[in-house]
Amino acid sequence: MKIPVLNIKQFQSSKEVHQVYVNSFANHIKINKHLTSTPHSHNFYLCVIFTKGSGVHEIDFKSYSISPGKVFFLKPGQTHFWKFKTPPNGFIFFHSKEFYEMYYLTHQLSNFPFYYSYQNPPVLELTDSLKGIENKFRELLQEYHETQAFRNLKMVNSINDIYIILTRAYTSTLNLADYASVNYLKILEQLEQYIEEYYHQEKLPKYYAGLLNITTKHLNRVTKETLNKTTHQLIAERVILEAKRLIVHSQNPLARIAETLGFEDYAYFSRYFKKKTGTSPIDFKKSYHKK
C-alpha cells in the first residue's frame, strides 16, 4: 500500500472555483469519507478550526488532541488522519500555493509561522478569540458558495485575514526581540527545501552548507539559534520521518526501504533507525499497527 496524495481537484464542489475549497467540517467529512478515512497527504495547504468534537489528529506520527478551539495547519506532503470520539464540526479550507501567492507577490505562505518550518507546531489552541475567528471562517464559506464579482480576490483576502489573526495568536507567547534574524530564517527556509530534495542521497551537513555557500559551522549556528537543533538533527529527522512513512504505509520489504533511503544495506539502516528512535524498524512497525 502506498499512502495516497490527495489532489485539491478531488474535493472541488464547484466548477467555477479553482485551487481552493471551503466547507463546514461536518459536511466535509460526510461527503469525502472515501478520501479521508485512511492516512493520506495533500498537494495543498490546509487549515481547519474545530467548534465541536473530540478525538485525535495524527500528523506525521505525532498525536494532537481535538477539541473546540483547536486550529490545525498542514503543508503539502504531510501525512495525517483523524480519529473522532464524538462528532466533529467547525470549518475547513484549503488552497494551492499559486491561489494565494498570485495575489500577494511580495508575501509568501512561508512567512506565516505555522507554514514556515516543519519544526513549528501544526496546531494552535484558541480561547477568548474563538468566536471572532469563527465568524471569519463563516464569511469565507459564504463567499465560496456565491458567484459575485471578484470572488477569488475576496476569498484570498479573507484567507489572508484569517492567517494574520491566527499568526498573532500563534506568536503571542513569543518574545519577538529574541526572534531569529531575517537572514537566519531565510537560510533555514532554504535548508529545509534542500533537505527535502536531497535527503535520500545526502545526509551530511557539509553537503547542504555547500549548497548554501556558507561554512558548516555557520550553518550549525543558524539551526541552533533558530531551532536549537544541529543541522545533522534536521537531516536525520527528515530521513526517519520518511522511513516511518514507508515502514507503515508501504508493502515494500525493509531492505528495499533502506535502499530507497540511500543506505548501503539493511543492517546499517536498522542501526541508524534504532539510534534515532530507540526501537528497530521491525518493532516500530509492530507497535504502530497495535494502536
TrEMBL record:
PANTHER family: ARAC-FAMILY TRANSCRIPTIONAL REGULATOR, TRANSCRIPTIONAL REGULATORY PROTEIN. The keyword DNA-binding applies. Keywords: DNA-binding, Transcription, Transcription regulation. InterPro entries: AraC-bd, Homeodomain-like_sf, HTH-like, HTH_AraC, RmlC-like_jellyroll. The keyword Acyltransferase does not apply. Residues 189-287 form the HTH araC/xylS-type domain. It comes from the Bacteria. This is AraC family transcriptional regulator. Pfam families: AraC_binding, HTH_18. It comes from Mesonia mobilis.
